Amino acid sequence: MNRTDRLYALVEELRAVAPRPRSARWLAGRFEVSVRTVERDISALQQSGVPIWAEPGRTGGYCLDKTRTLPPVNLTPQEAVAMAAALRQLDATPFRAAAGSALRKLVAAMHQGDAAAAGKLAQRVLFLGDEPPHAPSFPREITNALSAGRVLRIGYTDRGGTSTTREIEPLGYVGKEAAWFLVAWCRLRGGVRAFRIDRIGAVSVTAEVPSPRALHREDLDIRYGVLHQLSLG
Asked: Coil, strand, or helix at residue 188?
């Protein structure tokens, strides 16, 4: 078990028996680590805001305040990424630290598999520059493009006004102040392209599931500005 999984499991173990305590020795045996490792993990959780305290005495140990923590939250990976994108708009406000802390708590309370899927999805959402991007009305097929994992057939009008029909394999999103872009492998051009979403016309989802492709920053070939990857905490 890696440390991230163990931290999550420690919280759930203490939640399950709260308000009764669990000793460091008991927890060490449960997770097959040393008592010192448990103490370091508990300290890390306390510093991140998890309401754990030590109860002294022979029958003491670590206790969790259930009333101030969340049980596993049934957020979908898309919902978690949507919340991360929304909270990013607080970066330039006095609430930046609180927003980050709230997001970390929500992700920690998600089911483990959903949290991992959300992390992978967030890696494919990038922002160009520091200003929050304009938010157009996204077609549902575009909104679900990454999670659906299907080839899309789109009608696209480029900046010169030329319209084409293309089959694309969605890879990620890039947002900048003026617009959002869907980054995809374009079969017509044989390479990675960024499609401005407000220039996409008709969209249909095909039954084809393409082979996985990695999205690398160098594929985006952006010569100005700095890309910032969406973070879940």
From this structure: coil
